[in-house]
Amino acid sequence: MSAAQFSKREIERVLEVAKQMEPFARKEKTSDLLKGKVLATLFFEPSTRTRFSFETAMLRLGGKVISNYMMMETSSVKKRETLQDTGRVVSAFVDVIAMRHPVAGSVAELAQGATVPVLNAGDGPADHPTQGLLDLFTIHKEFGHFGGLTYGLVGDLKNSRVVHAQCELLKHFGPTGFKPAFICVAPRGLELPAMIKKELKEMGCSIRETDNLEKVIGELDVLSNTRIQEERFATKKEFEKFRGAYSISQKLMKKAKKKMVLIDPLPRVDGQLKTEVDSDPRAKYFEQVTNGVAVRMALMALVLGTHEA
Amino acid sequence: MSAAQFSKREIERVLEVAKQMEPFARKEKTSDLLKGKVLATLFFEPSTRTRFSFETAMLRLGGKVISNYMMMETSSVKKRETLQDTGRVVSAFVDVIAMRHPVAGSVAELAQGATVPVLNAGDGPADHPTQGLLDLFTIHKEFGHFGGLTYGLVGDLKNSRVVHAQCELLKHFGPTGFKPAFICVAPRGLELPAMIKKELKEMGCSIRETDNLEKVIGELDVLSNTRIQEERFATKKEFEKFRGAYSISQKLMKKAKKKMVLIDPLPRVDGQLKTEVDSDPRAKYFEQVTNGVAVRMALMALVLGTHEA
Amino acid sequence: MSAAQFSKREIERVLEVAKQMEPFARKEKTSDLLKGKVLATLFFEPSTRTRFSFETAMLRLGGKVISNYMMMETSSVKKRETLQDTGRVVSAFVDVIAMRHPVAGSVAELAQGATVPVLNAGDGPADHPTQGLLDLFTIHKEFGHFGGLTYGLVGDLKNSRVVHAQCELLKHFGPTGFKPAFICVAPRGLELPAMIKKELKEMGCSIRETDNLEKVIGELDVLSNTRIQEERFATKKEFEKFRGAYSISQKLMKKAKKKMVLIDPLPRVDGQLKTEVDSDPRAKYFEQVTNGVAVRMALMALVLGTHEA
After folding, report:
1. In angstroms, what CA-CA distances link B194 with B151, B157, B173, B191, B200?
2. Are C286 and B92 inside 8 Å of each other by CB?
3. How close, in Å, is residue A59 to chain C by CA atoms?
4. In the structure, what pLDDT confidence band is assigned to residue C309 with cuts at 50, 70 and 90?
5. Alpha-carbon distance B94 to B71, whole Å?
6. Integer-rounded Cα radius of gyration of chain A
7. From the CA of C193, how many Å to the nearest CA of chain A?
8. What pLDDT digit, counting tens, does each position of C85-133 carry?
9. How many angstroms separate the CA atoms of A189 and B47, rounded?
10. Which chain C residues touch B36 with a CB distance below 8 Å?
């Protein structure tokens, strides 16, 4: 449902199972683990990438999919059925639901009516837990742990649900002796919300804030980049103030650590993340796509009980 | 194609096979009965519920699905190919077609060109035979028979294709000694069409008409509720005259028989069917969703010849 | 990618494998040849027929499908991700991509980023190689060879990508002793582009041009009909000049050879191809639909390495 709901133990369990799922996600092996199971993807907002990831995960584990990815324009919604009713009805058809919605809290609303597990594929600016988990999986594959690392969060830290999900998950890995440090890099006005900073601190993480990426990039073990999205601003003018605030280029990457991990949820649209960086071995954003399939395989296997939670 | 086309024997056969399909529809068992078969869902009007029901039925019997649920906006239609041509072409791809269309007669038109079986998933205000069959299945599961029951049809009896389909099917169960009685409850102006009343009478069913549900609910074995749909009226003002004419509440249910069956095609949007009634054991509308999958499994198995008709 | 890219040997290999695929395309046998493989259909322009053909081909060979057939209106595109990025991301999910796009060159652009095979399902007025291949397959099934035949290309030869694809493929079958002859039948202004004529001549094919179909139909072994499409013209008025220029009727067919093959890519929308001709054994346009599935099965089997190229 939400990144905040995961305990440390649960996160570790997801990453453990995701690791086992990798050969299937990487198309190296086929699996019939979820044979006979059906997933419904209910997308009230388009997101081909996230939908394909869930559907691929189910299909490559031997399951099947029914899908509505244009739900806004379709009947039950036009007739304004409650999301609870939709949840209850769709539960009669399938074994698990993946849902995306532009309004925060919508997934929880549908889950209230549902009698099968519901996975949050992003709801509004609030949350995007599976993206957060795949980010952690990508980091964990590189370092084997989370503690003691320095995380650079770069971009629109105010509005990015991806960053918020990362924080909600990473905060658990604070108190293990090695306290992770966050360096928040955002233009003035797009800083990380105070509530999330408070939570991180309470869990023993240290936080530094700056608007200058160049000065701090050399300290980072992880650079989590998120673009500044036009749709999060009320007016185009408001957006233009921040456009181009950061640019991840080859030149900048030269100042980074040799083992740094560069993650980004994609898509990229505005040149903040240069294509010249794609071939840099530290750039993991395309590998993240495959990691996302592995994580969603793990989540479905866990909620469907084929693996103990 | 149409509810009117079913003989009594055929209805009984569908219900018999649907009964065998229940364990698969209820996700208790998996089946490979339709392995190798492909269903096309062609929806010229959105209906997630009905489409998901057909697709789930095919997938859970081991078959596969190709789908176009936004046909109005898509190519062959833009180019105004005839439905006969569409039927013939799609027949080359699949083994069975489920089609929904806003215009009455469209499904028959496509079926004319088709060389594979075509199932009517609703065409215009005219017909919705699979919904009618699943309603009968729900009733039959409860009582084991149809004769001698008193049916209360409640709501917009003039425009509801669901009610019309129910009548077309139930009329056959009149002459078996126990004549079913219909009590038609509709606001003035939304009464059951004269032609359907005539048919029911000719088959030996008795009919009573009233606009007062409270007075008659105590006599009913089946309460078939259908909402008064805004889209069936020319103007919003016209609709407002009838809005809220009936309300199925806990208070009202207290006056009903203990073994009454309350069915409704869903979605509910206007409070005619109160959520407080959901937990009443007589409320069968969510169970109907699963029954719908079983009935569509039965229909596909029958038309594809894996069960004798 | 493009019809122009095929060598004679490659075309022959596709037709050979398509021949082996026929029992599966005709639903006479089932196959698990592509079990474990996943196809993505990415349609930036609606074409139910072509999409269904690819999806059916994959499903009937035991594979699975993920699909986005409304890509124009969906997220990654709204955010203007490059097609290269889309290609790279979707490659992480699937084993093969079939793509359609209204703009020429788009498929090549996506393929640049892709790390899995990409099949062109039509891009703009430029190309539609799988349609061309299925046309050749239809002809080959009838005559067993291409050399020595007289091809009549009829309709909008200027804008039809189908005709252009046919020419690019058929030109290879010129120099084998029996030189194929092309009779181009188009209204003035819609003639075959000079470049294509030049290519055909260079490959040893002879070309004749006329605007009178009736006069030449008796000479043809193959009549490749393509409708004059309104959407190819800037104004409705421009289109009206050409509308109804040709009409394939029973009367006209009486003047044709007894063994002539009449092909057409469908859909038909304007009466150029009369329904009265459908029952003529020389009319192969509905059989072409099944041939299209066989050809796409062959292409997927070849690019996925289950058959040697």
Report:
1. 18, 11, 20, 9, 10
2. yes
3. 7
4. low
5. 17
6. 19
7. 38
8. 999 999 999 999 999 998 889 999 999 999 999 999 998 776 789 999 9
9. 44
10. 30, 60
Does the CA dihedral C148-C153-C157-C161 come out positive or negative?
A: negative
pLDDT tens digit sequence for A215-266: 999 999 999 999 888 777 888 888 888 887 899 999 999 999 999 999 999 9
So what's the ipTM on this one? 0.93
Residue with tokens 């969703």: B289
For residues C83 and C60, what is the distance between their CA atoms, to the nearest angstrom?
A: 29
What phi and psi, each to the nearest 5 degrees, are found at residue A303? -70, -25
Summarize pLDDT for A29-87 with one digit per residue, the tens.
Answer: 999 999 999 999 999 988 999 999 999 999 999 999 999 988 764 445 455 789 999 99
* Sign of the Cα pseudo-torsion (C77, A162, A290, B59, in order): negative
Contact indicator for B88, B114 with CB cutoff of 8 Å: yes
Output the pLDDT for position C2.
82
Q: What 8-state DSSP symbol labels residue A115?
A: S
Q: Kindly report the nearest CA distance between residue C176 and chain B, in angstroms.
A: 35
pLDDT at B77: 47
Please name the residue of chain C whose CA is at the shortest distance from the CA of residue A229.
C79
Residues C42/C98, Cβ–Cβ less than 8 Å: yes
Per the annotation, the verdict on C275 as an active-site residue is no
| Integer angstrom CA distances of residue A21 from A27, A64, A136, A294, A295 | 10, 17, 15, 5, 8
Per the listing, tokens 């040149």 go with A271
SS3 content of chain A, % helix, strand, coil (to 5): 45, 15, 40
CB distance from B46 to chain C under 8 Å?
no
Task: Please name which of B74, A58, A70, A130 lies closest in space to residue C75, comparing C-alpha atoms.
Answer: A70
Q: Contact at 8 Å (CB) between B173 and B203?
A: no
Query: Active site residue: C9, C49, C251, C259, which one?
Result: C49
Q: Which residues of B fall within a CB distance of 8 Å from A85?
A: 266-268
Question: What are the tokens at C160?
Answer: 């039809």
Tell me which residue of B107, B113, B102 sits closest to B1, measured CA to CA.
Answer: B107
Of A47, A51, A269, the CB nearest to C80: A269
